[in-house]
Amino acid sequence: MTVPGIDWPALITWMGRNVPDAGEPLSVSLISGGRSNLTYLIEARDRRLVLRRPPLGHVLPTAHDMRREWRVISALSATPVPVPSPVAFCGDESVVGAPFYLMGYVEGAAVRTRAELGSPSQAQTRRLSERLAEVLAAIHAVDYREVGLGDFGRPEGYLARQLERWGQQWERSKTADLPEYDRLVERLRERLPAASDSTLVHGDYRLDNTLIRFGEPIEIMAVVDWEMSTLGDPLADLGLTLTYWHDQGDEERARIPVAGDVTVAPGFMNAAEFAAHYAKVSGRDISDLGFYVAFGNFKLAVIVEGIHARFRQGKTVGEGFDRIGSAVPTLISRAHRMLDQP
């Protein structure tokens, strides 16, 4: 059996020694891959497992740290935050060519578009958006010290470091000088909160980074893709989630080709309702939410500029990339509008 990124005979031997209760491994197939970590489904005789490993050819392991992902789902497995069950970690790169870990298979779907959502009732989509806010609040309610994540990050100065980090990324990938970008960075720097809460943050929380079980009741079965998780300001998570949110009638947002259009489905909360529900269940003050949504738009603008730069260099293939560069000034403009609000 030949699957990119997997040495099947070596994996069979390793699983026999380290995961004997799974039974004989029968097959492996790629679930998802790309610039992010690769995810595979392993069918074994007694159970289904999922394997996560870094992208092929990646040379900066700190950017795709398997031990970090493994550590956070292990820490959260006994908390109210739904995560896949941790099974085994392998730091020996001789097995599949990189560190990897195994987790339990979760029956659920990652949904990005209205087409993938299907035709649930409006009551179901309303409940799904409520659960998305409630699970985010549950992540932020975890006592990270109690679950062994006290040294998982440096919460002090989190936003200042994020501003610096993404600013450096912009300088490495920018395709043109944008005065409005420079002005945005200065405005964000001036508005940085003097102090903030410190919690576990997911770093890329949105609907398609969860696995959904359809039915009655509709439910989020697991939060996945923890590769950007750390300790920091929880409202940064909320702000980025709202940056990805697409409200009905927001034609400008429709022209930004990132995330999907699932949140415009009938029944979904709009962004303001989602934020209010998060505030209700978390008990957090979101009166300065405009800053955090502006920060999310800044971060996404840098990410999109990087994709645009790779496209111009001929390093990105696929449809739509020829138009993605126009989203950068739009995201910057949206960030400025959020900061303009009283």
Task: Write a structural description.
Helix 4 (122-141) packs across helix 9 and helix 10 packs antiparallel against helix 11 (327-340). The termini are far apart. This protein has helices at 8-18, 66-76, 114-117, 122-141, 158-173, 179-191, 234-244, 251-254, 271-282, 289-312, 327-340; strands spanning 25-32, 38-44, 48-53, 86-90, 100-104, 199-201, 210-213, 219-223, 230-232. The strands form 3 sheets. Strands 1-2-3-5-4 form a 5-stranded antiparallel β-sheet, sandwiched between helices. Strands 6-9 form a two-stranded antiparallel ribbon. It has a two-stranded antiparallel ribbon with strand order 7-8. By secondary structure, it is of the alpha+beta class. The radius of gyration is 20 Å and the shape is globular.
* Arrangement of strands in the largest sheet: 1-2-3-5-4
Q: Helix/strand-derived class?
A: alpha+beta
Helix content: 40-55%
- Please report the total strand number as a whole number: 9
Shape: globular
**In this structure, how is the largest beta sheet organized?**
5 strands, antiparallel
Task: List the keywords.
single chain, 342 residues, alpha+beta, 5-stranded antiparallel sheet, 11 helices, 41% helix
Element layout with pairings:
Blueprint: H1 8-18, E1 25-32, E2 38-44, E3 48-53, H2 66-76, E4 86-90, E5 100-104, H3 114-117, H4 122-141, H5 158-173, H6 179-191, E6 199-201, E7 210-213, E8 219-223, E9 230-232, H7 234-244, H8 251-254, H9 271-282, H10 289-312, H11 327-340
Helix pairs in contact: 4-9, 5-10, 6-10, 6-11, 7-10, 10-11
